[in-house]
Each structure stands twice: as C-alpha cells, then as structure tokens.
Amino acid sequence: MSHKKNIPVKRSASKNPLVVIVIIILGATSIFYAMYLYQQSLLPQTSEESQAPGEINLPLESTVSSIAKQFICTCGKCGELSLDVCTCPEAAKERETIRRSLQAGQTPQQVIAFVNDTYGGMKPEIQNQ
User: Fold this and answer.
1) What is the helix, strand, coil percentage profile of the chain, to 5?
2) Which residue in 36, 48, 61, 68 has the most C-beta neighbors within 10 A?
3) pLDDT score, position 47
4) Please, are residues 102 and 111 in contact by the beta-carbon 8 Å criterion?
5) Which domain holds residue 31?
6) Quick one: pLDDT at residue 44?
7) 39 pLDDT above the threshold of 50
8) CA-CA distances (angstroms) from residue 57 to 45, 47, 50, 63, 99?
9) Same structural domain for residues 65 and 107?
10) How many domains, the chain?
11) 72 and 25, same structural domain?
12) Both 116 and 62 in a single domain?
C-alpha cells in the first residue's frame, strides 16, 4: 500500500493574477514612454524651441519691432498707426509674418522687402532714405 503525500504545489508567478496585471501595466507604460521618446527625437531642435513655453525671445522681438516700425498698418481702419503699436488683427498678422520670416533665416533686409512687396505700407520717410 503506497501512501501518496499531498505535497503543496507552489503557484508560479505567471498564474498569480496580480503579478500578471502589474507586468502588463509596466510593459504598456514602457512601450508608451519609448514611443514618446522616439517622437521627441524626431522633432527639430532649434534655439527657439529650447526656450521655456511663454518665454520671450528678446533679440527676435527687438528685430520684429524695429522692422515693424518702418511700416504703417494697412488694414485701412486704424488710421495710419505704426505697425509696431497697432493692435488690430491685420497688424498682428503682419508682425507674425515678420517673426516667422526671421525665424526661417531671412535677413532683416529680406523681410523688409518681402513685407513691402506683400502688404505695402512702408512709411514715406523710410522709402525716401
């Protein structure tokens, strides 16, 4: 007569539902983090992008202002306010055009010529120089 002893069987970690859930969560988190890092590595890194959000690039804004001072707002509703101080949407659009052109690498002289050709409005005292 043989006696069979009941030997306790250890449950493997893979059969414990809590361990499986934790492993799945960690795996999914790792995959999403890796995808995020990969996406960030594809983005171009420029000096403007390395600034904190909301931080003003003073040299750029100074150049935008000095170019905008050479023009009047061309919307026709503001009188002849200088483009650097006018608050209408058209003036904001023109200043943004100046900003983006400078960020794209155009020289101030190129931007001035582009703005004058596109929008006009160069102040007479600037044209006569």
Assistant:
1) 55, 5, 45
2) 68
3) 47
4) yes
5) 13-42
6) 55
7) yes
8) 16, 10, 11, 10, 11
9) yes
10) 2
11) no
12) yes
